[in-house]
Design brief:
two-stranded parallel sheet; two-stranded antiparallel sheet; globular
């Protein structure tokens, strides 16, 4: 529950950038879908995200732009 409250607080207001460190870990599947929808809606409002994660993110859930680092290799995604 603390994780969900922390994520909720991250989406309050109109920041230019939101940093999320392991945002989907320990979150149930339904909440992951909701968080991904929130990220997409905030991106549509012009808010940028930096997300760090050790777990595989489904590319159909989130749209990546910029540079992605994985397993000590740089993977460009545009």
């Amino acid at each position: 529950m603390i994780k969900k409250v922390s994520l909720t607080l991250a989406f309050i207001g109109k920041p230019k950038l939101i940093l999320l460190d392991e945002p989907l870990i320990t979150i149930d599947t339904k909440a992951v879908d909701i968080i991904c929808m929130l990220i997409k809606s905030k991106q549509d409002e012009g808010i940028s995200f930096i997300i760090t994660s050790h777990q595989t993110l489904q590319t159909d859930q989130l749209i990546f732009t910029g540079t992605l680092l994985a397993e000590n290799k740089t993977l460009s995604r545009a």
